[in-house]
Amino acid sequence: MGRHSLPDGLEPETTGAGTSSRRRTVLISTALVLAVAAGSVVALRSGLLPFSGPCGGDSVPLNVVASPDIAPAVEAMADKARKDAVRTDGKCLDVKVTSRVAYEVADSLGQRPARSEFQVWIPDSSLWVDQVGAERGTPLTAAGTIASSPIGLGAVPGAAKALALSERDFSWSELSRTATSGDELRLGMADPAHSATGLLALARINAANAKKAKDGDEADIRTASAAKLLYQRAADSDRQALSTLPHDSSGAQGNSRRNEALLLSEQAAHAHNTGDGNGPDLELFSPRDGGAQLDYPYTLVDDDQLTSAQTRAANRFMTLLGGVDGQRALRELGFRAGNGEPNDEITRAAGGRVPQPYAPGLDAPPASKELQALLGKWTSTVQSARMTTVVAASPSMAGQVPGLGRSRMELAKGSLLKAVESFTPDDEVGLWKFATLLDGTKDYVELSPTTRLGERGEGGETHRDELTAALNSLAPVPAGADGLYDTTLAAYEQATKRYVNGKLNTVVIITDGTDDDLGSIGLDQLVAELKKATDPARPVPLIALAIGPEADQAALDRMVAPTGGSAHLVSDPSQIHEVMLKAITKAGSAGPR
Question: Cα separation of 399 and 592, whole Å?
């Protein structure tokens, strides 16, 4: 949750195109690919694609848009085609190449009718082509794969040595656990919403968690936990992710805002190691359970609307990119051939071992719907939160939990402290406790206001420090009852009045019983008041966590229903933070905030 954390002086990369929150997925027909390839062969045999000789007549323009990493190689071949007077239909082939990040092009093409100014698109991954097709946007035809690059872990030498990465194999789940366990490894990545590298890497982490977890809920919680922490060190683009690495040989020592490692492609590591920039070279590693890869599909844009001359020009240029000179230009920039065949020279320059165990993956690539669901999980999990946590402090919270030897309150406090650790400085979290008559006639008291965890007080301490102290002070009151309904209404009304746009606003109630305050409003009146307070344009889902057998699940279900929230029975209070995370993730994906 929260905004990206980047080193000082970095500004978001601008590319001049608008963005959209929609993510689209569908499979590209193999038949279409074969048809285009066959058409190229027929054209070549019929002499429609002459390869050399002086140009005569007008040129045939071809506009190509390419991912920024591969655009220089594509531009080099376009320049060579002009220099060598390459012809198509007896006219000069005039290729203009524009560099644009793939997700922006996908957003543009996904809106139909879309007026495309280019005939060929070369994104870094076919997942963008799939997404355009999922929303029935501009028709696209993948005609072939011109390059590829596997995704792995690039680490500065100090981090690689500290974790002994060269001496052992590791899995994606181990990598995720290491990166989210304190400061053992400061791992960054590009935002999966904007980067195929980031999304495919997150998919591998998610797949590994699914294999390790006992069920789907546990896998979702593991992935969400990893996503929240990875987001804090994520950058808006692949290029900006590289700029978060240390700029000198210190390896980021003394600067906790700099990443020690990145999830990135082999080509990106190659570009970093062979470029003119400052900072140590990366060492490149591949998880033992396989990796994903970027596949750079050569894609015809709305080919039904292309003229015969444009189609033949597009096929002609694809032939050049697939030829000796084209593949050489791609190799010089660190790309593998389209079939993914390893190249020792590229691997060594990228900092990898030879032979490097890169592979497209032991499992089939994620299905389009899986990637869409994963992106939704990422978006809902990492958005900044504003959450008021309300904890029961009635005498029953002193009760021992069978088999654990600790009270409900002790376990609840420990779990909530874990939850606070996972929030970012931009998240707003507050704490109330409730029983009966804690503040005059009120059943509740605010222990810590709902404000930014990174906000500092007059003494220099952060709100996170204050909230941690407030959580540690929680203790059951020696006498009293459970004023659940009055407290819930008061907390909810405050949350709706202080609603913050752009954040996931929510109230979390943790209770171990039912409302037994004789002076309290009843359940029917509470539900009616909550309906009045609820505003669909400013949603505040109410999440109720019941941690004792005395809790009334049916009453809690009725209580949260008007707000679009959810109620959950937690048999082990030490797992409150996991159940709460799952509930927040579900609430965050319910709709725009």
Answer: 40
Q: What is d(CA 13, CA 166) in angstroms, rounded to the nearest whole number?
A: 33
Cα(95)–Cα(71) distance, rounded to whole angstroms? 12
**The CA-based dihedral angle spanning residues 379, 382, 387, 389, taken in that order and rounded to the nearest 10 degrees:** 110
Would strands 261-265 and 140-145 be described as parallel, antiparallel, or unpaired?
Answer: unpaired
**Total-model pTM:** 0.64
Task: Return d(Cα 44, Cα 30) in angstroms, integer.
Answer: 21
Contacts of 158 (CB under 8 A, 6+ apart): 251, 252, 253, 260, 280
What is residue 489's three-state secondary structure?
Answer: helix
User: What pLDDT, on the 0 to 100 scale, is given for residue 120?
Assistant: 97
Integer-rounded Cα radius of gyration of the chain? 28
Return the structure tokens found at 357: 């165990």
Question: What tokens were used for 202?
Answer: 């997150």
Q: Tell me: the pLDDT tens digits for 349-362?
A: 999 988 765 554 44
Which residue, among 564, 541, 446, has the nearest Cα to 492 in the 3D structure? 541
- Cα angle for residues 463, 572, 465 (degrees, 5° grid): 10
- Per the model's pLDDT, the better-predicted residue between 136 and 24 turns out to be 136
Of the candidates 129, 159, 149, the residue with the CA atom closest to the CA atom of residue 23 = 129
C-alpha of 311 from chain center: 36
